[in-house]
Amino acid sequence: MSPIESDPDAWMMRGLPAQLAAKAHVAGDVRYEQACHTYATVGAPALVIAADDASDVRAAVRFAADRRVPLSIRSGGHGPSTNARGIVIDLGRLRGVEILDHSRRLVRIEAGARWGEVAQVLGPHALALSSGDYGDVGVGGLATGAGVGLLARLQGLTIDRVRAADVVLADGTLVRADDRQRADLLWAIRGAGGSFGAVTAFEFEAGSVGTVTWGSVTYRAPDLAGLLAGWATLVERSPREVTSFLYVSPGPGASAAQARATVVHASDDAAAGRATLSAFADLAPVSEQRSGLDPYATLLTASRAPHRAQAAGITAHTGLLDHVTDEAAAALAGLVNSHTASVLQLRSVGGAVNDLAPDATAYAHRQQNFSVVVASHGPRSELDAAWASGIVPHVRGSYLNLGTDRDDAALRRAYPPPTLARLQQLKRRYDPAGVFDHSLPIPRTVTADTRAA
Ligand SMILES: Cc1cc2nc3c(=O)[nH]c(=O)nc-3n(C[C@H](O)[C@H](O)[C@H](O)COP(=O)(O)OP(=O)(O)OC[C@H]3O[C@@H](n4cnc5c(N)ncnc54)[C@H](O)[C@@H]3O)c2cc1C
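Above are the sequence and the flavin-adenine dinucleotide SMILES. Below is the predicted complex in structure-token form.
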């Protein structure tokens, strides 16, 4: 019997650096229970290491690499950052948010901060970073994936604002990646970061944002396809200050679907904001509407409520659409009206998102206007089949962070051949042994289609 089989806990702890002794937690410890599951994933790691600083992260990565067990880097725990019988390095205590240079709007944010916390610190300085629609999501996972937020059409993706990153590499060294040193690593961090290292802190160029007009418009949607197409047309025609997300769920029984649009008009021009909201309210019969003219920070709050895999069991497919054509709208509406999908989300990703070239970051999709998510708690096979036959023909590319798919097809939808080829090359340089392979294994072998690119 091997040592790991005879006493797995003792084997796992052997060689643990002294600096981590009080920070390594096993099942039964409070700190372990707080970080073993994520928002959507049930986990059973052998060890959770709660890092206090970058030095702990370095020691923990070296230790995990030596153990050759699955390694998950957890920042906010809203993604897939857990595993079975491996190690979770929890960065939740690295939560500093600091304004480095107000004139250049340069801010340093540690990976374990939550976006709601970031908004609260930046708000009083009339600064903001577009992140997502949920203040408890962590900085680390979102700012290494892409980051589609409520200022997306004005500011671009969250990664578009990353200017530098402090990264612990697979051998435990801590390096800085910016446009002068390791620019190739910075390129990879901005879209596929989880596969290249553990980012301990980012430098971002924030935007100047003070008061915004926001609205939440709930529609009754007997003509759901018409609403989806009308909403999308309105978004595309709106100025860049306007970003909107649309959340749809089936109505009870055979009744009409419910849809709610979140609208942000990022300007303190109250009259323009009112005109924007009234255009969204004209799209379909409205059952409820709330609005305000408030600091952007009021839209995002963080609770740091513990994760108990509350969304476990959900299947979520995700893709990107150039436009919501009548055909795409009909297919998406059919998925909701048939109750095949219990959730449909559309997020705007046009405007400033499309100012960058496809090869500027590892997130390559710079022409599409919408991100789509369809999700279900129900039988997986039914949603899988409906997605593949009804929706995939309309999508072009995908943003992995919003879905649960991590198979080869999803990887290739997310990273077009030239991007994937470059990622494979960088993976061989920065993580040849696959220490950071757990969330998104990037195949090392260059296949014919990536070589052709
Ligand atoms: C309720 C909810 C709302 C969401 N809304 C949005 C939205 O509006 N827009 C949007 O873009 N996304 C959204 N997301 C998706 C979100 O971008 C991902 O789930 C993201 O991974 C969460 O980041 P996290 O740090 O909380 O996750 P974690 O679970 O901590 O990390 C997820 C993965 O990211 C990588 N990672 C995490 N931290 C680091 C780090 N420090 N260094 C390197 N890699 C790291 C790892 O691969 C890790 O497995 C939402 C998710 C949820 C659950």
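The pocket of flavin-adenine dinucleotide is lined by residues 38-39, 72-81, 91, 111, 132-134, 137-138, 140-142, 144-149, 193-194, 198-199, 401-402, 439 (CB under 6 Å).
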